[in-house]
Every structure is written in structure tokens, then in C-alpha cells.
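Protocol step 6 of 9: fold each sequence in the batch and record its C-alpha cells directly after the sequence line. For illustration, a two-sequence batch is reproduced in full.

Sequence one:
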Amino acid sequence: MNNLTKPVDPTELRVEAMSRLRSVLRFVLCFFCALFLLALPGRAQTAASEQKTITLEELQQMALQNNPTFAQSVANIQAAEGRKKQSGLYPNPTVGYQGEQIRGGSFHGGEQGFFVQQDIVLGGKLGLNRKIFDQELKQAETEADEQKLRVVTNVRMSYIQALAAQQTLELRHNLSKLADDAVETSHQLANVGQADAPDVLESEVEAQQAQLAVTMAEQNQQRIWKALSAVVGNPRLPLMQLEGKLEDTPRVNAEELVEKIVTESPAVRIAEIGVKRAEAALAREKREPIPDLQLRGGMQQNGELLTDGRSVGLQGFADVGVRIPIFNRNQGNIATAKANAERAKREVERVKLVMRERAATIVQNYTFSQSAVDRYKNEMIPRARKAYEMYTKKYQDMAAAYPQVLIAQRTLMQLEVSYVNALESFATSSLSLQSYLLTDGLEAPAQPGGIDQPVREVNLPMQLTASPQ
């Protein structure tokens, strides 16, 4: 019997069809693997977003125009200037009417006239008043500079957080799409007997987790954007695409920055101004016992009749007096001023220690996140990608099960997300150290003459955990 009339073996047909189907599935799997690798953040960018883009410089300019704390800083400076001017003004004179024996009695007398009274301030007390409020003016000006730094830093930090949320969302979208493709692939493999029911169920759970992660990433992006729009003073600012890369964060010397914070930060300068103000107030209280000269003089018409029948007529009078400091020598206020001066000196020390305390956490976070970024980028992610590629190849060669491919893919996904989190923590910690730990752009500046709060931070970077999850 020749080959044309030889019966066809059904087993051979099934083997041939199975072989072709395997080839097709392997091609599909390879295509998805290549798509996954291209979708990783920091490697190949996704399609351009339809959202309008905005830069960090535009956000900062918006904040400088709209943030209400700048107007508060200006008002504080104006108030300090007004108090300084008022403290050096001379007391106003007193002008009044004086009358004695107005009806005059049987002598037809009576004295009526006017007087002018003026206090002459001695001891240089007005000049010392101006020195006190001059320090308050310097404090208000330093507070204004500090507030500008707070706002700009807050915008930059919110920008970093929003940029990280944007990159995380893009990553989550790509991973969710790949998880959906994996579900479809697992169904196709199950139909031809190359995947078991648990494999299909596991892929479906992975896809649902990926979808839930997308939802969480979207909500997190909305939260961060609302905080950013509040700082720039435009709460209705629509969500936009941010330009920039987290990888561009420069590296700094953390220990040198800590010393700079302790010696040059606006908070320390304000505390030092407080010492000068307290010393000026003490000098002023010591001059208070020096009495002011009280002058009083005037003219009056005396109606008393003389022996010749004429009235005395116009006459003048003058009084000069001082208040003798016998019982009240301003002892209590001097003691209070001394205590305030000592407290102000200790305040400088306290602020420096507080800055060191707060900086210690940021330095730890910066050091850890820097190490984490290096390890994720240079060691863990390349190894995880290599393992994923190896498991994929083994699966194509029928040497590994599909769940192993899913596990390798999930590990690589988690590392990529953790890498973005580490970049965010690294950037925010670096920015916090460079900006003297001043990151709360919506906190009101301290009132002139009041106690500054150098560590009012509400936006400090969170400490990065050691887990890569």
C-alpha cells in the first residue's frame, strides 16, 4: 500500500497538533515576557499621558504667589516696624485748665488760667525701647526668610511624593495588564492540558491583587496631589502629569549638613536674636528706676484786688518734680528680665539639641534609603530579572512549572515598587537635610516677640522599612 492510501494514525495527528500549539503558546509567553521587561520603571517609558504636564518651577512660582503665609510674614514685619517706631516716640504733653478761688469771695479774687505739662524721659529709656523692638523686627524678617524656605521645600517635597506616586501608578497599571495577560495565557494552557486548575486560580488571584493595587495607587496619587495643591495655594488645581525623575536626586554629606543645620539654620538664628532681645529688655528694666523729669507751667489771671483797688492780673507759675525711687526700684521686673535672658540663652542650646534630635532620624532614613537604592538598582532587581528570564526559558522548555514563573514575576514586581519607594525616601530625606528640616509650608510664621517653633514639621519623610514589600 502506497503512502497516499495508507491510513492516518490519530495519535500522530494529536501529537503534531499539540506540538504546534505548544510553539504558539511559547511565542505568546515570550511576547508577554518581553512586554513585562519593557514596562519596568526607569527603563522604557509608557505612552505619553494625555494629561497636561507641569514642572517643579511652575509649582514653586504658583506657591510664591498664592501661599497665604507670605502675606502673614509681611504683616508681621510691618507690625514689628510699627512697634519699633511707637516705642521710641516721646510722651505727649498735657494741656489743661486750672482754677482756684474762682468766685473770689469778698476780695473779688480767683485765679484762672491754663497749664502745660511735659514728662522728660531720662536715662536713655526710649533708645533702649527701640533696641528691644529692633530685635523683634530682625526676628520678623528672619521668620519671613524661614517661611519662604518652608514653603519652597514643602512644594519640592510634595512634588517628589507626587512624582513617586505617578511612577508607582504607571508601574501598577503595567503590572495589572501583564497579570490579566497571564490569566488569559493560563486559561489557554489549561485548555491544552499544560496548566492545572490551581495554576489558573493562582493567576486569577494575582490579577485581582494587581487591580486592587492600581486602585490604591490611584487613591494615593489623589491624596498627595490634594496636599500639593493646598501648599501652592490652589486647591482646585487639576491633576497633571509631572516632569522629572526621582533618579536625579544628588547625593549629599549627611553629617556635614547636620552641623550646618545646628549652626546656620533660621531657627537657631531666631533663637540667637531672642537672646539679644532679652538682653536689651534687661538693660531697659535696669534703667527704669531712673526717674523722669516732670515739668509743669502755665499762665493764669489773678482777680485778687490790691490796696489801690486794682487786680493782680496776669501771672505765671511753674512746677518741677521727680518720682523718688525709694520703695519701687523695679526690682521685680529686673529679676524677671534676668530670668528671661537666661531662658533665652538656654533656648539656643535647646533648639540646637532639638535640631540634632530631629536630624538623627532623617540621617538614618537617608543613609538606609541610599543603601536600599543602590542594592535595588545594582543587585536585587538585576538578579530578580535574571531569575524571571531563566524560569520563563525553563517553562518554555517544559523544565519548570508555570507557578514558578508567576512567583518570579511577582518578586520582580515587588522589588520594582520598593525601588520607587526607596527613591522617594532618599529624595525627601536629602531635601529635608538641605532645607534645615523646614518642610511645613502651611504653618503660620511665629509672631514677632513670640517664641519660635523651629520644628513644626508636619511633612517629615517617613522612615523606610527594611522589608522590600
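Sequence two, same batch, same settings:
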Amino acid sequence: MEKTIEIPIEFKPLFGREWREAAIYGGRFSLKSHSVARFLLIRAREKKTRIACFREFQNSIAESSHQLLADLIKQYELHDFKVTDKDIVNTVTGSDFLFKGLWHNEQSIKSIEGIDYAWVEEAQTVSTSSIEVLTPTVRKPGSQIIYTYNRLLEDDPVHKRLVIEGRPNTLVINVNYDIAEKHGFLPETIKREIQDDKERRPALFRQKWLGEPSSNELKIYKDWNIIDELPHEARLERYGVDFGYHPDPAAIVAVYYLNGGYILDEIAYQLEMSNREMANTLKNLPSALIIADSAEPKSIAELKMYGLNIREAVKGRDSVQYGIKAVQDQRISVTRRSTNLIKERNGYLWAVDKEGKIIPGQPGDTPDHLLDASRYAITSLFPVIRRRELYPSVNKPRERNNIAV
């Protein structure tokens, strides 16, 4: 006997046909993603339905909602679904689930035909340009688009579009952890965590559990320019390296100089990357000085043994504050293919105290591996750049393969 798929009553409006776009937002453990996933599985069992699952940044299927859907199929023993590493298909109705990243994927998105439902997970990170590509792509009569998200900043494009400005035939559902508690889905461990945050970290409680957005003032790096490709006249200056293995990834970024500004180009962002693999990656790139995380002197020594020109970064609390300020003062561009770097930059916010006030000079606890690598490289450059500006004939870069080194 099949198990009944349970969805909280607060999500019942999803089953209506009158809405075109749905904004479903709130804090952690509000059952947003689980409820939408259950809803889509039900629709896929009713008749042939094409469901496209999107995220702004998706470099692999592991970063998609594929695993959540697969887990629910297993939990409810839905034997009419066939789950592969890349796709999910209902063998009775012919319904299928597709998984795509929106960022820098315009042509691939536009080529998808016959979408009945588009689900955009983690929609707080979706750019205005991605929304403008997606909405006309989902053009089948009666098709619907669902955005699920925890608000990040006050001006998140999806929230501004659907809730603040509003669009015709928009469904808005705002939910928080109390929904899970009401329906018996909230574990005791999570209840204790929520209560502890509420009592001791009220600002974090409001953002994390009530879904309140952070002020735009908390954003550390602003006004970075996204460029389609690396200009051929850009001058390669440094590589920045932040060591990692698991659960943190190793990160490598190339730093170029052009017309008084810096261009960042993501090279690697990989879990369980050995030092030998890192050395092989770096040795296959145009030559430049490497500035690496000084917390790993053994790794630096090993990379030197592989013949790499590598130097440790200056680290410490003061160096972080100085480095962030120094990077803030530069004109920064990022190549569009640097998806992990862009993702880190978008979520890189100042830490706040329990009342929500900024702690001067202290970043919050968010992924910053490529950002750290960029900071190491850029701050190491300042004496060199200043010397070149004062004495243009000194250390004039030599050309090799159309790249100045």
C-alpha cells in the first residue's frame, strides 16, 4: 500500500491554476522546498508533465534539487518513478524532471520546450537577467513558475519583482518554522537551536528563522562588474590559492590587471583536491607568482618541490581587515564563468552582533575560499603596481602567448 504524500495546508494554494508565478519565502525549516517537491511529484503522477528545476548556480547535478526529489520518491515508495544520476522520469505518465543552472546558460535555457512547471530553488540568488531569460521561456499555455527562497538582502531581484512591485496573477506564500512545528515536522534538536538563537542571538534568529533580509549595508564587496570573457590585453599578475580538502574546497583564482583595475578569473574550486592535483593544475597555466594561504606551510613547501613559484600570504586578523579594505578600494571585474566566486561574493556580508549591528572589520561566517584567494593575490600586488605607476619603464611585462607575464 502506497504512503500518503503529506503537504501542510498552508501550501494548498499551489494546487490552483489561476496563478502564473509563485513567491514562496521565509526562514529555515519552513518546509518550502519539501512542500514544493511533494507538489511537483503529485503533478507528475497525474498526467504527462515537464518539470524544469533551476538554480542560479549549478555546476553539477549534486547542486540541484535532484537529491531532495529522489529522497522523497524513496520515502514515499513511489515505484512509478525511475531515478538516474541526471534525470527523473515517471514510467507511467511519461513526466520528466530536468535540472539546469540559469547563470550564463541563456541558450540552453531558451532551447527547453514544453515546460509545464519551472521551480527555481534558492531564488534569493537569482539575477534580474536570469529572470528575464526564464519567464518568456516558460511560455506553454497554463505553465507556472515557482520561486522558493530565504531572503538574503533587501533588494533581492525575485522578491522585488514578485512581492514589493508585484506582478499579475502572483501567488505569495510567506512561511516560517512555526508551520513545521504546527504539523509535527520540527525535530527537538531544531527546536532547541531555534530557542537558543532567539535568546542569545536575536539578529541571527530574525534572519535565519524568520527570513528577514539583511541590510544592503552588510554587503562587503559592492559594484563588481561581470564581464563575458577575459580581454586579451589583460596582464596576468598573480594566482591566489586557498587550501582546502574536505569539507572546504581548495580554491585557485587568477588575477589580471587592466587599465587601473583588476580582473578575477576562477581557475579551480574543488573538494578533495590533493596538492599534486593542484600543482598539475597550476603548472598547466601561464606562469605567474602564486600567493597561498599561509596557514598551510607544509602544503606550500610541497608545491615548491613541484617547481612552482609560490609565496605565503600575510595573514592574521589585522591582515584580513586591511585586505578587505584594500580590495574594496579597487575596481574589480569578474569573468562570467567564475560562478563559485560570484556566489561567494553575493553572500559575503559583515558579521553582526546580537542586536544586528555591524561588527567592524569582521566578515560573517559564509563561504569565502575564492574571495580569500583573491585577497591574498591582490594585496601582494600593491607595491609592484605602485612601482610600475611611478616608474613605467621598470619591470615592463613581457608578452607570451598574447598574455603579459
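Proceed to step 7 once all outputs are recorded. Observation for sequence two: The first strand starts at residue 21 and ends at 26.
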